[in-house]
Structures are given as structure tokens and as C-alpha cells.
Amino acid sequence: MPNTSDSIFALSSGTLPAGVAVVRMSGPKSFQALAALTADVPPPRQAMLRALRGQTGDVIDHGLVVTFPAPHSFTGEDCVELHLHGSRAVFARISQELSLLGLRLAEAGEFSRRAFENGKIDLVEVEGLADLISAETEMQRKLAVEQGFGGQSQLYMDWARRLTHARALIEAELDFVDEDDIPGSVSDRVWADVAALSAEMTRHIAAAKTGEIIRDGYKVVIAGPPNAGKSSLLNALAQRDVAIVTDIAGTTRDVLHVDLDLNGFLVRVFDTAGIRDTDDIVEREGVRRAITAIDQADLVIQLQEIDSPPQQDKLQGLPEVLNVGTKVDICGQAQRFDLCISVVTGEGLDQLRGEITARLKQHWTGFSVPSRERHISHLREATEFIKEALAGHHLDLRSESLRAAASALGRITGRVDVEQLLDVIFSQFCVGK
């Protein structure tokens, strides 16, 4: 665990060289170091142009300087930002000077960890910021904003407050049951709300699929017999050559994939080996991997040449299968398929993209969803404790179950008992964040 009393610095902008390099400092020596570099400390939150000089008096660079006094900063400590020219040499010299002034290079995620430990953000917001930095699609950005700027945390804290209120009424009945001004029973006021809360949390957990799809992608597997056009379809959807295409059956022997952005959603499309019986040991392994990919898919596109005889449906029983006929430019339309396509002329490809998007959106429940397994695990734990409370008979035991449920919710935001998680969570950040 890093020493939180140290003053730290890091490059917080992109890889050098770049047009601008942002160097961030945080800690008690930040303003002192700035004064040594520029001979003064500008007013808070005002960008001022300054010459930065080394200890020998030579000018290192001219840049903008911004100060953020504690506690009104991202980390809750005194913070400084230096906006310099994005040269490797400039950053190397600034790093050298800051080290001589008693600052050290920050570890991965150390700025965010200090913000958490100083009460500026909670763990859900921390994870949301990490997701925002790595977001590649519009939906990933929107989900990260919902979580990174407190929307999701507010929901969990409201639930915890409702549990605390219920416990307070229960404790009142337990402690003051003989007093005239305490109701003889709090059941009507407490347990109806607890039951409603349990239903809300259950619906929230059920929406986890939306968060999984946004963060990790909607998994679409192209399956079918050899030479059905699976690799050609992957290349057509990707609009580049990803997979090798030949007339030889069994060319594809591993699972390949491309990532697509469809209407702001991340869609992962997988090309698989043709499913057939074979004596080739390598191809047999490819078939095994194809079956595994199919089992893990959100949607399976089952390809078959339109003029080929109908084959036994080996994908029967899967929840989402789209039957697609290929080579419509040669064979014409066929009613036995959900839709027909041609990767040569492009016919049907837009319809296929639209069908994938439509099926994806069937899972859509909005952005207030759990998006990490850690959140889902604690939410399930909390709902189990609430069920215990609802099913119990002794008020003191039912109150303890509600306390345990609130504690499980607190572990999501980091309010209680999360020390062992912190190194794992913050190590996923880049240095400088």
C-alpha cells in the first residue's frame, strides 16, 4: 500500500510526444514544488502562463499552471496541474526536478485511491471512472457516466438508508415496547417497505445482463457447416479481411472475432469452425471450440447455403438463433430462413445488422444497472439477508438480517469492509489517474 503522506506526481495525459503534456501533482509539497519551479503560486483554479525553471535557473519550458487547494480538488489534497509542451525531454526534466523537490512518481491509480480515501468518490464512482477512460462506444460512455458521477451510488445509498430506517423502528419496538408513545407493532410500516425494497433489488439484479452487454459486448457467433460462408460473412461485417476464405472445407480451425459498433453498442462477432465429424485432430479441436463459443453466445447466426438441403438443427434449444441463408444473389430468396444475404453484392447485410441490433435491444433496461460481478455478488448477498428478515419471526434476528443486508450494500460503494479489494481495483488504472 502506497504511503498517503507522500507528495506524488505523474503524467496524466496521453503518450508522448504529444501537443500538450499534463503533469499532475498531489500532496502537501505540491504548492512548495510549484513555487520552486515558477517562483510563485497562482490563485486557485485560474490558468496562468509561467516559465518553469530548474534548480540551476535555466528555463525548462513555458506552460499553463493551475492550482487546486485542499479540500476542493479531485484527491482532496493540494493539487497542481502543469500544462506543458508534450516532449519526452520536457517531461523527463520536470520529473527530475520534482524528484529533487521531494515528490515521487505516483503508482497506478494512486490519485483515484487518494480521492476515495479522502471521501471525494466511492468505489462505484472509481470503477465508473475506469470504465469511462476505457470506453470505446457511446453506450459504454453513458453507462460509465451514470456510475462515475454518482447516479448508481445514490441508488445503493438510498436503499441502505431505507434499511437503516426499518431497523430504527424495529429497535424502537424492542427497546420501548412498554412505553405508551411507541406503537405496539411496526410491521405494517416496516415490512411492507422492506418487501418493496426486496422486489426493487431483485429487478435491479435481473437487469445485470444489460450492464454485461454494454461493458463486455453482445456476443454473436456465426455457426454452420463447412463452406457455408461464415468467414466471408465475418469479413463483410468487419469490412476488412479478418478470416482466410477458401473453397476447402475446414479452413477455419480456431475462433476468430471482430468488434463492431452498432448504434453505440459493442458487438463481438465470432467466426467458428464448421461443425462436422472429422478425423483431423486439429479440426476436431476447432469444432470443440466452436461448440463452446456457441454455448456462451448471446446470439447465434446459423448459416446455410440457400440451395443446400435442410440440415438437422444442431442448435435446437438455444435461446437466440437467427437462421440465415447465404448466396441469395445466386439462389434467390427462400422462405425457410429468417433472412437471406449475399456477401458478394451486400444484399441483406443491412437487414442482418438491424436484426442483430433489434435482438440486442430486447435486453435493454436503461443505464441504472449493475455492471460488475462484484456489484452483483453483494446485491445478491443483500437480497438473501432481506429474505431472511422477511421470513423470520423474532424481531431481534430480523433486525440483524437487515443490518447484514445494509452492510452488503455498503461494500459495493466501499463504505464498509473493503480494504482487501483496494489494491486490486486501483491497480487497474493507468499511472496519473
TrEMBL record:
<keyword id="KW-0819">tRNA processing</keyword>
<keyword id="KW-0460">Magnesium</keyword>
<comment type="similarity">
    <text>Belongs to the TRAFAC class TrmE-Era-EngA-EngB-Septin-like GTPase superfamily. TrmE GTPase family.</text>
</comment>
<feature type="domain" description="TrmE-type G">
    <location>
        <begin position="217"/>
        <end position="361"/>
    </location>
</feature>
<feature type="binding site">
    <location>
        <position position="248"/>
    </location>
    <ligand>
        <name>K(+)</name>
    </ligand>
</feature>
<dbReference type="InterPro" id="IPR027368">
    <property type="entry name" value="MnmE_dom2"/>
</dbReference>
<keyword id="KW-0547">Nucleotide-binding</keyword>
<comment type="function">
    <text>Exhibits a very high intrinsic GTPase hydrolysis rate. Involved in the addition of a carboxymethylaminomethyl (cmnm) group at the wobble position (U34) of certain tRNAs, forming tRNA-cmnm(5)s(2)U34.</text>
</comment>
<dbReference type="GO" id="GO:0046872">
    <property type="term" value="F:metal ion binding"/>
</dbReference>
<feature type="binding site">
    <location>
        <position position="246"/>
    </location>
    <ligand>
        <name>K(+)</name>
    </ligand>
</feature>
<dbReference type="Pfam" id="PF12631">
    <property type="entry name" value="MnmE_helical"/>
</dbReference>
<keyword id="KW-0342">GTP-binding</keyword>
<feature type="binding site">
    <location>
        <begin position="227"/>
        <end position="232"/>
    </location>
    <ligand>
        <name>GTP</name>
    </ligand>
</feature>
<protein>
    <recommendedName>
        <fullName>tRNA modification GTPase MnmE</fullName>
        <ecNumber>3.6.-.-</ecNumber>
    </recommendedName>
</protein>
<dbReference type="Pfam" id="PF01926">
    <property type="entry name" value="MMR_HSR1"/>
</dbReference>
<dbReference type="GO" id="GO:0030488">
    <property type="term" value="P:tRNA methylation"/>
</dbReference>
<keyword id="KW-0963">Cytoplasm</keyword>
<dbReference type="InterPro" id="IPR018948">
    <property type="entry name" value="GTP-bd_TrmE_N"/>
</dbReference>
<dbReference type="GO" id="GO:0003924">
    <property type="term" value="F:GTPase activity"/>
</dbReference>
<dbReference type="InterPro" id="IPR004520">
    <property type="entry name" value="GTPase_MnmE"/>
</dbReference>
<dbReference type="InterPro" id="IPR005225">
    <property type="entry name" value="Small_GTP-bd"/>
</dbReference>
<feature type="binding site">
    <location>
        <position position="433"/>
    </location>
    <ligand>
        <name>(6S)-5-formyl-5,6,7,8-tetrahydrofolate</name>
    </ligand>
</feature>
<dbReference type="GO" id="GO:0002098">
    <property type="term" value="P:tRNA wobble uridine modification"/>
</dbReference>
<feature type="binding site">
    <location>
        <position position="227"/>
    </location>
    <ligand>
        <name>K(+)</name>
    </ligand>
</feature>
<dbReference type="InterPro" id="IPR031168">
    <property type="entry name" value="G_TrmE"/>
</dbReference>
<dbReference type="InterPro" id="IPR027266">
    <property type="entry name" value="TrmE/GcvT-like"/>
</dbReference>
<dbReference type="GO" id="GO:0005737">
    <property type="term" value="C:cytoplasm"/>
</dbReference>
<keyword id="KW-0630">Potassium</keyword>
<feature type="binding site">
    <location>
        <position position="120"/>
    </location>
    <ligand>
        <name>(6S)-5-formyl-5,6,7,8-tetrahydrofolate</name>
    </ligand>
</feature>
<feature type="binding site">
    <location>
        <position position="252"/>
    </location>
    <ligand>
        <name>Mg(2+)</name>
    </ligand>
</feature>
<comment type="subunit">
    <text>Homodimer. Heterotetramer of two MnmE and two MnmG subunits.</text>
</comment>
<dbReference type="InterPro" id="IPR025867">
    <property type="entry name" value="MnmE_helical"/>
</dbReference>
<feature type="binding site">
    <location>
        <position position="81"/>
    </location>
    <ligand>
        <name>(6S)-5-formyl-5,6,7,8-tetrahydrofolate</name>
    </ligand>
</feature>
<keyword id="KW-0479">Metal-binding</keyword>
<feature type="binding site">
    <location>
        <position position="24"/>
    </location>
    <ligand>
        <name>(6S)-5-formyl-5,6,7,8-tetrahydrofolate</name>
    </ligand>
</feature>
<feature type="binding site">
    <location>
        <position position="231"/>
    </location>
    <ligand>
        <name>Mg(2+)</name>
    </ligand>
</feature>
<keyword id="KW-0378">Hydrolase</keyword>
<feature type="binding site">
    <location>
        <begin position="246"/>
        <end position="252"/>
    </location>
    <ligand>
        <name>GTP</name>
    </ligand>
</feature>
<dbReference type="InterPro" id="IPR006073">
    <property type="entry name" value="GTP-bd"/>
</dbReference>
<feature type="binding site">
    <location>
        <begin position="271"/>
        <end position="274"/>
    </location>
    <ligand>
        <name>GTP</name>
    </ligand>
</feature>
<dbReference type="GO" id="GO:0005525">
    <property type="term" value="F:GTP binding"/>
</dbReference>
<dbReference type="InterPro" id="IPR027417">
    <property type="entry name" value="P-loop_NTPase"/>
</dbReference>
